[in-house]
Task: structure prediction
Amino acid sequence: MVKNNGSSTKAEKCVRMEDKRSNAKLRLFLNDNPYSLIELSGQRHRPQLRQVVELILILAFVAAFVYSLPGRAQTFTGPAAFGLGGAGVAAVAGAEAPLMNPAALAHTMNYQFGAFHQQKGFEGLGSVRDYGGVFIDHNPDAVIPGALTYFNRTRLVGPVTLESTYIEISFGNFLYPELAFGISGKYFKQKVVGSDVDKTIWNGSLGLLYTPASNIGLALVSTNFVKDYNGEIYPDIAFGAHYVYEKVIRARLDVRLPQIDNADKKGQVMFGFESVLAETVFLRAGFRWDDLNKKNFATAGIGWDGPRLGFDYAFEKNVLTEGEIGHSVDLRLFF
Result:
């Protein structure tokens, strides 16, 4: 019996030695294979091909950053950002993600749909009315998270009415566990109602979202980096930060540094705070300081998230004048 046990032990040793040889060959294959990205023995082996692709994407982003001319504010925002002073490029914003930063799509889940309506008045100088929707696809079988955005805008400027159509396709995913990259392409057409005057623009956006911790986000977004624009679509650069305290207080801060018609290099600062009540109700307040256009907006809003349905409302007012106010509302579905 002892001899048999000894023979059995030798056989087991042989198996273990063969396993070690196989594992060594597997490690050698994986280290030499440029298409693999896995962890072995607690060490990450980053493939050469993926590094090259990531470097190209980051360099493309930096090139667009340098090439673009920062200009006007975000074209469209949802009521969550609206109630937080307009800030949100570094936040995981759900259905508003593609409106703020395409990289945030990496942090979305499953399918989401949001319907938006927004209206602003400009102290007797006209008004703007937006309505549209966002559909996000990040189901487990999706190759890469994506979103489709549609907006229609009617702008009244004295006796002139401008109609605009805005369509955007966005994609975003992780380059590393803490760093997400996003890109979008957009179509924008504006026409003067009652005439043959119109203009079509093709443009795009690039975004980075860095989350060194679960409660911290930092972002850099280049919006409309292609030099094709008009009074509605302008290149823009935004830096953002997002901080969550104990899951009950969320703070956002965005900074924009316009350069078009901005010889003095004046900037725009947007910040806001969100309080979470019972994990489903959100109270929001913020402020937007626009030194370029000499406008300061106080903002406020409220939101609610149910199991499958969400709702948001926000209000803003220019504190330097009586007639410039805005309202924004949405209805969100999760499935």
Notes: The radius of gyration is 25 Å. The longest strand covers residues 160-176.
